[in-house]
Amino acid sequence: MNSHDLNKVAMGVLMALLFVLGLNNLSEVIFHQDPMAANAYPIDVASVASASSANVVVDAGPTIAEAMQTASIDKGISVFKKCAACHTPESGGKNKIGPNLYNVVGKDVATTGDFKYSNAMLAVEGGWTYEFLNTYLTKPKDAIPKNKMVFAGLKKASDRASVILYLRSLSDAPIDLPTVEIAEVEEIIAN
Ligand code: HEC
Asked: pLDDT confidence of 92, banded at 50, 70, 90?
């Protein structure tokens, strides 16, 4: 092969290369897709709406039934240290600044014998349901205005759930645990 032939071969290779590159570019031009186009699917308004209303529910905090799914008695015992200055937990325990709390979950409000309740507390009708305990322990002053429990409240839903689970255990016959709706269970699993 002389240098002239070599040049021809090189030229041929170069042309082939240019041809392939050219094809590539050409197909890019013809079949080019905006990378954003792949993401630009139409927004499903219904799903966005339900997602944002679900967020509103989450902002309101879990229900006590939901929060109790992940509560623990051990944690409740530890939270109860905040209550122990004023309350005894055991059966037959004495009243301190506040009434003994044995059997309190499910019992009528302000009915622990020989404790002098405030009029505000005595005026409450009904019993200590999980929901009402949860509300009361969040901010006692707001839940029952003028009651005389001088306690700011437990801010964390998980602390309230655990202490309520512990209070529930302070009984010869603890009442049933609160039930969570199927939809709520799915939400807990999803989160
Ligand atoms: C500084 C004292 C004090 C602390 C701390 C305190 N409590 Fe109380 N608690 C009271 C008093 C006083 C009452 C009675 C209120 C009334 O009669 O108005 C009361 C009432 C209650 C009642 C209603 C009992 C019934 O017989 O109806 C519950 C339930 C309760 N407390 C739970 C708790 C829990 C749980 C904690 C801790 C997270 C706690 N308290 C912390 C003083 C306290």
From this structure: very high
Q: Is 121 in the pocket of ligand 1 (CB under 6 A)?
A: yes
Q: What residue type is assigned to position 75 of the chain?
A: K
Residue 188 confidence (pLDDT) = 75
Q: How far, in Å, is the centroid of ligand 1 from the Cα of 84?
A: 10
- What CA–CA distance (Å, rounded) separates 95 from 112? 9
- Ligand 1 pocket mutation pick from 87, 121, 128, 171 by most atoms within 8 angstroms of CB: 87
* CA neighbor of 131 nearest in space, from 184, 68, 40: 68
Longest CA pairwise span in the chain (Å): 120
How far apart CA 112 and CA 116 sit, in angstroms, is 9
Q: Decide: 162 and 79 in contact? Cβ < 8 Å.
A: yes
Does the pLDDT of residue 177 top 90, yes or no? yes
pLDDT in tens, 132-158: 999 999 999 999 999 999 999 999 999
- Distance of alpha carbon 171 from alpha carbon 191, whole angstroms: 33
Instruction: Tell me the one-letter amino acid at 141.
Output: K
Structure tokens at 71: 């509560």
Confidence of residue 49 (pLDDT cuts 50, 70, 90): very low
